[in-house]
Amino acid sequence: xxxxxxxxxxxxxxxxxxxxxxxxxxxxxxxxxxxxxxxxxxxxxxxxxxxxxxxxxxxxxxxxxxxxxxxxxxxxxxxxxxxxxxxxxxxxxxxxxxxxxxxxxxxxxxxxxxxxxxxxxxxxxxxxxxxxxxxxxxxxxxxxxxxxxxxxxxxxxxxxxxxxxxxxxxxxxxxxxxxxxxxxxxxxxxxxxxxxxxxxxxxxxxxxxxxxxxxxxxxxxxxxxxxxxxxxxxxxxxx
Length: 239
Hints:
Blueprint: H1 2-29, H2 34-46, H3 55-80, H4 90-111, H5 121-142, H6 152-173, H7 183-208, H8 218-238
Helix pairs in contact: 2-3, 3-4, 4-5, 5-6, 6-7, 7-8
């Protein structure tokens, strides 16, 4: 009897264990894996389908896509610098780009009186950045803008704001509305106003000389005015 009960208990234990183990396996397979998700996110960014693929297959495709993207980026950079890419490896392109960039940086540094001897591209950039900061600080100080503890970006923003205020004042004095306008738009309005004044003065001069301005461009009117004035001066000189 004891053996029978023991056997039944063992069968019951097995029966209970099987679904629990199955549930545990199912739970484990559905557990979130950060590394797997990272692969999926990267693949999605590259437009790579991951359906039915192993991690290794996804990694291989990502490696290929990344290499192709890097090559394209190098070719674009080379094209901007006027460097030929025919038959060159990524390493060769990278070396050519670095050499071309160094030449440009050295030329820029020399123009600003910065020594380039033995300096890497990184060191040249840092020297140029420091020189740019000094120049910005001098310009800001001249306009009464404090530069203490400010980066190049912050000083540029402060200078931009000061220039906008100055433009707004100039435009207001010229009777031009500035509300909601950018610095570029205010510049354009001031330029248009200046051109209008010049055109009005030119038309008035043409009118005094008996020159018609109807349907004529400013250049045409100016040419006729200059021609009429030359004729007038020549006539006076002949007397």
